[in-house]
Automatic annotation (TrEMBL):
GO MF annotation, one: DNA binding
Taxonomy of the source species: Bacteria, Pseudomonadati, Pseudomonadota, Alphaproteobacteria, Sphingomonadales
Protein name per the record: DNA-binding domain-containing protein
Gene3D superfamilies noted in UniProt: DUF2063
Pfam families (alphabetical): DUF2063
Species this protein is from: Sphingomonas tabacisoli
Keyword Coiled coil applies: no
UniProt keyword Nucleotide-binding, yes or no: no
Database matches in InterPro entries: DUF2063, DUF2063_N_sf
Keywords attached to this entry: DNA-binding
Putative DNA-binding domain segment(s): 7-85
Length: 241
């Protein structure tokens, strides 16, 4: 008799093979496909809302056969679903859809990230002005940023909690910031300057280095305002004592 691992692998292969007739595995195959489709819809709710049940079920089934779950923890499933969407011919009519899927994934990562208190802006009051340039602030574990060549952030924000009706965003590159200062994920659109600031701080740049790089690229940006919004969003982690 085959060992358990070999049996499980063979059983999984059978489940992924479509059958023209109803065989003994049909009920298991249907349950497995339904479970993966439902899981992907839960992981990518905005994509699901945008394309509708029928279209999403079709692409979810194709994806399940292309990349079946490798772990019983379904939150790990579908990591490359945004890339998979890029390869689908019908997505050419919805060029923002892979980016919307990527934001759905960022939302999930922010939701499941480690807990940590955000930095209280009041604690920075004691820092001497001469020390600001060398100050290094760590980003919060739940902080996620993305920059896209499509208006996917505007589309995602508009559709996240329901159907906004007619929506005609300006076709331009946009960024998004997702944070979790409390129990829920918060998201808002960001411009190029704020994205550069957050990107630099996530890389470990000091406040002075991030400010200088942002000012050089975007000289009209209001760094003080950007930094204040960053603190208020909860994107910066509390510093250890």
């Amino acid at each position: 008799m085959p060992d358990l691992a070999a049996f499980q692998a063979a059983f999984a292969d059978k489940l992924m093979q479509s059958s023209p007739v109803r065989d003994g595995l049909a009920v298991y195959r249907n349950n497995w496909l339904c479970a993966t489709t439902d899981a992907l819809a839960d992981l990518y709710p905005t994509v699901h809302r945008l394309v509708g049940n029928e279209a999403f079920e079709g692409v979810a089934l194709d994806y399940a056969r292309h990349d079946p779950p490798a772990s019983p923890i379904l939150s790990r499933y579908g990591a490359d679903f945004p890339d998979f969407l890029c390869d689908q011919a019908w997505v050419e009519d919805l060029p923002y859809l892979p980016d919307v899927a990527a934001i759905d994934r960022l939302y999930l990562e922010a939701l499941l990230a480690a807990d940590a208190p955000p930095l209280d802006p009041a604690t920075l009051a004691a820092i001497a002005p001469t020390d600001w340039a060398t100050l290094r602030l760590g980003t919060h574990p739940a902080m996620r940023i993305g920059w896209f060549t499509t208006p996917a952030p505007s589309i995602w924000l508009a559709h996240r909690d329901g159907d906004p009706g007619e929506l005609a965003p300006e076709w331009r590159a946009e960024g998004i910031l997702l944070t979790r200062p409390g129990l829920s994920v918060e998201a808002r659109a960001i411009d190029r300057a704020e994205h550069r600031l957050l990107f630099g701080m996530r890389l470990g740049e000091t406040v002075g280095e991030a400010a200088l790089a942002t000012a050089n690229l975007y000289p009209t940006s209001d760094f003080a305002g950007l930094f204040a919004r960053t603190l208020e969003s909860g994107a910066i982690a509390a510093q250890p004592n």
